[in-house]
Design a protein that fits this description.
The protein has 215 residues and is of the alpha+beta class. The protein has two domains: 84 residues, no CATH class; 115 residues, no CATH class. It contains five helices and twelve strands. The strands form three sheets. The protein has a six-stranded antiparallel sheet with strand order 7-12-8-9-10-11.
Length: 215
Amino acid sequence: MTRQNRVTPFGDIVATPDRGTLMGNRGLLHDAGGRIRRAWQLRRWIVCVLEFKERRRQVMTPGRYTELFFLDEATGLAAGHRPCAECRRTRYTAFRTAWAAHLGRDGSPPSAGEIDDRLHAERVGPDRSKRIFLARLDDLPDGVFIQHSEQQEVAYLVWGDGLLAWSAGGYTRRIDRPTGAAVLVLTPASTVGAIRAGYVPDVHPSAAAWLDRRR
């Protein structure tokens, strides 16, 4: 049975047989039959590792949080998640440090709650749809997701001098990164700022494969 528990860069929760490299949650989203009934429950949207301290869970246990899966960390960040403070502590600390640097707050990293509140305001609109914003592609760092004007249903990862088309199983094609273009950004603005300030998202190995083809 293919469960509806994979997250796209648009923040949608879809059903696909492809496996993710990271896990996360937004609270209890499914019913007793394993069907998704809401897009989120909590403001704490996190990205976790697949294995931690030999813990074992039955996926979509009734009454427990819904296990979500991501192709990679860049996908989770685009959807509006952040690194988990427990199982990805080092990454969480690096994310907080970069977030503070983006805000110019030397020596005063934000709390998890502060990050969660800011991200929630940036990822969810009044009608509960995903918020996006307009930016110059030239100003965006690697690891950010955008929509391309000619294929708005496809999310593209900004990666070097190219844009990589996302799929649940990996990055499927590359197009040259245009200069001087205005694009719609899927990754929340504060997360873009953290990436620009030095946080480097983990990306699926297929991204590196496209880079190798350019050499």
